[in-house]
Amino acid sequence: MKNSILTILAVTTLVFSSCSLSDDDNVTVIESEVSAQNLAGNLTSDLTLQSGVAHNLTGALLVKEGATLTIEAGTTINALAGGTDVYILVEKGGKIIADGTEENPIKITSSATVASAGDWGGIIINGNAPLSRQSGSESNAATEVKNSILFGGDVTDDNSGILNYVILEYTGARIDDEAEHNGLTLNGVGSGTTLSNIAILNGDDDGIEFFGGTVNASNILVVNAKDDMFDFTQGYVGTCTNLYGIRENGYTAVTSDPRGIEADGNLDGNSPSDINESNFIINGVTIINNADGVQMSDGIKIRRDATATITNAYLELGSGATFSDVIDLQDSKSDATENTSISAVANTANDLDITDVKNTTIGGATISLEEGTTGGADKTVFAWTGYNF
Prior knowledge:
Blueprint: E1 5-13, E2 39-43, E3 47-49, E4 55-63, E5 68-71, E6 76-79, E7 87-90, E8 95-99, E9 106-110, E10 123-126, E11 141-143, E12 146-151, E13 161-169, E14 184-187, E15 194-201, E16 208-211, E17 217-223, E18 230-233, E19 239-247, E20 259-263, E21 279-289, E22 295-302, E23 307-317, E24 322-329, E25 341-346, E26 357-358, E27 366-371
Parallel strand pairs: 2-4, 3-5, 4-6, 4-7, 5-8, 6-9, 7-10, 8-13, 9-13, 10-14, 13-15, 14-16, 15-17, 16-18, 17-19, 18-20, 19-21, 20-22, 21-23, 22-24, 24-26, 25-27
Antiparallel strand pairs: 1-23, 1-25, 11-12
């Protein structure tokens, strides 16, 4: 496709996507007492990590039901470069309180001398909120990276804690083609949880992925995610506000289909007869591909029975970068009643036209393009990260 800039003012769509479950628990949990300086094992009682003190994440840290992991503003945690064996998993009934500030954000990063994407497995939060599922079945599912731990339930306002002013670097370790860690994985997380002002930088898979749940999120920055920037699946029904995703020049993908937004109604489209499929809202999103010679499969892909309402979206390509499709809507239900519509503003000087949008009539979708050059997320709210836009 030509170099182009696209501003989408309103989007209502059908989509959702993700990764499938692994049959194996390819993880290591160190059976030892958890301490503030040696974070690994089962956390069964409350623990506070103080700022100004060295904290090392050395293995899989499982925050068990009834326990709370509190991380003070200004704290840095250095994660051992152990790939899939090093991560934080907050189980159902557990909590993480990582409430940083603009002046004193919380950072979790790789301890490697030369850090790289996939050095550690990121943060996984499991909640008790609803998922897509077969009628009459329970609302629960297995955690992708550790099948013995379940997530999901029927508590829409479930509270798993707070992530606010948090930087996650060099995350997203991959297990295999069917299971991987993202920067931030949200499994059935409820709307009582606070997710705001989060930067996910240089990860090896998706930046942030929502597996069902009702949690809302705001001011999320994703830089150089090697797969999808923002991924929604398995019945997610929350609202996301001010999402900004960018791929810098020199970026390389690890999958054949990296996307800005990818969405499925049910898990990987394997259960098209599910109830409670994904129906979510995005208010303000920017997707930029500045990677010369690297094609982004889709700027926005809504598929597999999901419904999305997206307003004020802005898509941009740098010199030499491409989108396979700017917007792709597909695989709607045969009985779909959604009236999907996209009102887009494009920089016509860069020759963006309707042929760059696929499947415009599925599910009653309508798409219109007008000339324009601005819109999307407000990047000024990310000044606290120090990222140079």
